[in-house]
Amino acid sequence: MLRLSCARSAQVDLDGDRALNGVDVPVYSYGKLVGTRTAYNDRLLMFMLRNRAPDRFTEGRAKGLNAVGQMELKRLKKQWREEYERERAQGGEARVFASIDAKLQTLHQRHLDSMSPPRPRGLGRLQGHRGRGQGRRLPLVGGPGASEV
């Protein structure tokens, strides 16, 4: 038991050193060793910090559940299921769907009211061409009465 504890302690120290000081990684160019670079393991550091001081480094996220935590989760799930079944029996789901439908209908009607009245198809293009080419005629090309240019 003492050996296991010492080995675990040595491993934690080694991991901490690796996370903080990095490890040298060889750099090769064209198959030849040209040097080394230091690679830091940020994930290892964050893992160690989260486990050493979870209250400071977990940011409110769920921590690993022990037996008490698992029992608490099971109790809460049972409570939530009962609340869900009670609301469903009272027609809560139908009321929610009806409320959503009414809101969508209101939004759709608002959208329709904000639109301009419909115009005949192509009227915009016709009005855009009015006034162009007044007083001048374009020569016909390739048809009867066409002049050679």
Question: Which descriptors would you attach to this protein?
Answer:
149 residues, mainly alpha, two-stranded antiparallel sheet, flat
Task: Explain what the structure shows.
By secondary structure, this protein is mainly alpha-helical. 59% of the residues lie in helices and 10% in strands. It is built from 6 helices and 2 strands, in the order αββααααα. It has helices at 2-21, 42-52, 54-57, 67-89, 92-114, 123-129; strands at 23-29, 32-39. It has a two-stranded antiparallel sheet with strand order 1-2. The longest helix has 23 residues, at 67-89. The radius of gyration is 38 Å and the shape is flat.
Quick take:
The protein is mainly alpha-helical. The chain has helices at residues 2-21, 42-52, 54-57, 67-89, 92-114, 123-129, and strands at residues 23-29, 32-39. A two-stranded antiparallel sheet has the order 1-2.
